[in-house]
Amino acid sequence: MDGGQVHRLGRRLIEISAVATGKPGDLVLTPGERAVLEDVIRHPGASVGEIRERTGFVQSHVSASVARLRERGLITSVADPRDGRRTQVQVTGEAMRAISRRAGRRIDKAVESAVGDRARAAQVIALLDELAGLLL
Questions:
Q1: Is 95 in contact with 78 (CB distance < 8 Å)?
Q2: Do residues 105 and 21 make contact, with C-beta atoms less than 8 angstroms apart?
């Protein structure tokens, strides 16, 4: 397997994940908002500048994404008590509960749809479980 195959496999798994975990009425985020939210989940209390450094987005994009996510109640931001010029960003409990509910949805039907039959889907899921055990 080469790097291109790994990349294509990763993209395909993301597509299957989106089918499996997405439901009508779920919150829809832009790719930039998703990247910012994922960064804040991994780095609670991060500043906008730190998020910018890790995501590679320009400061104005991060600030706009933070503002939109805050308006939707997904994150909160407060002035850093040590440096009032900095803003620290946190994910809300409500957002984490929604993410956990969505992440807990089973992938069986989405995999079956992707590969065409139930037996092959069971094989793929077993291989994905093994791969997750090795890599995560």
A1: no
A2: yes
Residue 106 CA to its chain's centroid (Å): 17
Residue that is written with structure tokens 């009425």 in the block: 25
- Residue 90 CB neighbour total at 10 angstroms: 17
pTM for the complete prediction? 0.75
- Tell me which residue of 4, 22, 31 sits closest to 107, measured CA to CA: 22
* Alpha carbons 84 and 74: distance in angstroms, whole number: 22
Q: What Å distances lie between residue 74 and 16, 63, 96, 110, 112, CA to CA? A: 24, 14, 8, 27, 32
More confident site: 82 or 70: 70
What residues contact residue 35 under an 8 Å CB cut-off, 6+ apart?
A: 55, 57
pLDDT, tens digit (0-9, with 9 covering 90-100), for 74-118: 999 988 788 878 889 999 999 999 888 888 889 999 999 999 999
Calculate Rg over the CA atoms of the chain.
Answer: 18
Kindly state the tokens that stand for 34: 């998703």
Q: Length of the chain, please?
A: 136
The pair of three-digit structure tokens given for residue 107, joined into one six-digit string: 């992938």
CA angle 129, 6, 119 (to 5 degrees): 40
